[in-house]
Amino acid sequence: AKTLAFCRDNGIKFEQCGKLLVATNAQEHERMLALYQRCQQNQIEVELLDAEQLKAREPNICGLGAIFVKSTGIVDYREICNKMAERFRELGGVTQLDTQVIGLEEHQDAIQVHTSQGRFNSRYLICCSGLMADRMTRMLGIATDFQIVPFRGEYYRLPPDKNRIVNHLIYPIPDPELPFLGVHLTR
Question: Residue 153 and residue 116: Cα distance in Å, rounded?
């Protein structure tokens, strides 16, 4: 809801098209039902669809059933990040792009950032390090019980006449053994 409000407040276009997690075999259907139960336990608003309901929403998609997540949408996230950085700079903040962090020192009233562009001192640091988050926490001496494992995907663009082949985002039911794999169809 906060992302949507930010987009509305800043004139950023988005489309709340919803997402379908589709089960295509008996094993995926079983995992889908377990995932649906976890959604219910965590109060995530979802709808369980059978094969017929799935076909009604997505005529070009075949499956035994699906979980429909109505709140999911698409947006140009680069535009959101640029607007956030712009707002931050308007408040006196400084952004530093294309700069490698090679060390961090946290003191009681400041943080010193050692980078490929020199050293910077700041009272506060907002660190959006993504795939490097585990390395940043270790640089600060924070006990880190996770490790980021980057995973590369392949992207293909369908011909323009296929732009409306689906009405929603289409995802496979996650496989706990290979949680990153699967074909995702995005509008």
Answer: 29
Q: Are 183 and 174 in contact (CB under 8 A)?
A: no
CA–CA distance, 95 with 141 (Å, rounded to integer): 24
What DSSP letter does each residue of 97-164 carry, written as one string?
A: -S--EEEEEE-SS-EEEEETTEEEEES------GGGHHHHHHHTT------------------GGGTT
Half-sphere exposure of 158 (CA within 13 A, CB side): 11
pLDDT for 59-103, tens place per residue?
999 999 999 999 999 999 999 999 999 999 999 988 888 999 999
Q: Report how far residue 86's alpha carbon sits from residue 83's, in angstroms, rounded to the nearest whole number.
A: 5
Backbone angles phi, psi at 23, to 5 degrees: -95, 130
State pTM to two decimals. 0.79
| Residue 49 contacts residue 65 (beta carbons within 8 Å) | yes
Number of residues in the chain = 187
Contacts of 184 (CB under 8 A, 6+ apart): 169, 170, 171, 172
Q: Give how far the C-alpha of residue 42 lies from the chain's centroid of Cα atoms, to the nearest Å.
A: 18
Q: Which two tokens stand for residue 140?
A: 């600060």
How far does CA 166 lie from the centroid of its chain? 20
What is the enclosing helix (H) or strand (E) of 23?
strand 19-23
